[in-house]
């Protein structure tokens, strides 16, 4: 955080102007407080100048960096924080690196998502425009995306074989969108979401319009393949 600097002049406005000139900045980039108003003495004698204190506003990147640094210090973790602020898109990309990143990722990325959410609150509390925060480490986001896309394809294959709907585990909105996007090109299945947050889940069903184009399962399929009820659980239900 920038340190306060004191300025004085005949009036508070003059003191502020002097501060902006010396600090080489503009009024929208600083915050200031009037410490003491100017006082006029009798016949101009014993007058006192106005005193203000000024400091530059904290940059949004500094806000999020300091916020995360305090969290990691509390967790006794040494974490390198790399930030890339795209001002045109109002997005701050944050890459974390260190020796114990598994702890920051958490089960299915839940800890990483929580850090991202809290960092977003910290930044936007002081920002005039909404800034999106994206936090990643060890390419986890991409790896998770590929895992979910593979899950979607496997579930779709099961639905086409069994002709029964498949209910996936609860996912956050981002991961549900990955499922929907991965299967939108498969005309044989449909996807929709059911339930309330945080238990909302994707359901994959057979598309009735094109179901007739799929080959029917052999009546002896279950007997020949010795499918038990346990084996017929969907891939989604078995994940982790």
Task: Specify Rg, calculated over alpha carbons.
Answer: 29 Å
Helix count equals: 8
Distance between the termini: 43 Å
Uncertain residue segments: 219-240
Please tally the β strands and state the result.
Answer: 9
User: What is the string of SSEs from the N terminus onward?
Assistant: EHEEHEEHHEHEHEEHH
Helix/strand/pairing category: alpha+beta
Assign an overall shape. Answer: elongated
Calculate the mean pLDDT score and round it: 87
Work out the strand percent.
15-25%
Strand order of the largest sheet: 1-3-2
Q: What portion of residues is helical?
A: 25-40%
Query: What kind of sheet is the major sheet?
Result: 3 strands, antiparallel
Characterize the structure shown.
With 240 residues, this protein is an alpha+beta fold. It contains 8 helices and 9 strands. It has helices at 12-23, 60-74, 101-105, 110-124, 140-162, 173-183, 221-225, 235-238, and strands spanning 5-9, 30-36, 50-56, 79-86, 91-98, 132-137, 166-170, 189-194, 201-206. The strands form 3 sheets. The protein has a 3-stranded antiparallel β-sheet. Strands 4-5-6 form a 3-stranded mixed β-sheet. A 3-stranded antiparallel β-sheet has the order 7-9-8. A hairpin with a 4-residue loop joins strand 4 (79-86) and strand 5. It is elongated and about 105 Å long. Mean pLDDT is 87; it is low at 219-240.
């Amino acid at each position: 955080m920038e340190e306060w600097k004191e300025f004085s002049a005949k009036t508070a406005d003059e003191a502020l102007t002097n501060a902006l000139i010396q600090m080489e900045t503009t009024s929208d980039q600083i915050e200031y407080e009037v410490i003491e108003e100017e006082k006029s003495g009798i016949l101009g004698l014993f007058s006192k100048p106005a005193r203000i204190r000024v400091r530059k506003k904290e940059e949004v990147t500094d806000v999020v960096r300091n916020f995360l640094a305090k969290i990691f210090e509390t967790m006794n973790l040494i974490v390198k924080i790399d930030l890339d602020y795209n001002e045109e898109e109002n997005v701050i990309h944050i890459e974390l690196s260190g020796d114990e990143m598994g702890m920051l990722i958490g089960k299915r990325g839940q800890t990483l998502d929580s850090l991202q959410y809290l960092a977003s609150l910290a930044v936007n509390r002081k920002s005039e425009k909404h800034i999106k925060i994206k936090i990643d480490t060890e390419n986890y986001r991409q790896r998770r995306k590929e895992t979910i896309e593979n899950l979607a394809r496997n579930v779709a294959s099961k639905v086409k074989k069994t002709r029964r709907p498949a209910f996936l585990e609860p996912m956050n909105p981002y991961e549900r969108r990955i499922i929907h996007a991965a299967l939108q090109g498969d005309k044989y299945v449909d996807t929709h979401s059911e339930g309330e947050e945080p238990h909302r889940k994707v359901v994959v069903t057979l598309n009735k319009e094109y179901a007739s184009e799929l080959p029917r399962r052999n009546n002896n399929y279950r007997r020949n393949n010795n499918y038990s009820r346990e084996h017929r659980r969907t891939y989604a239900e078995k994940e982790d």
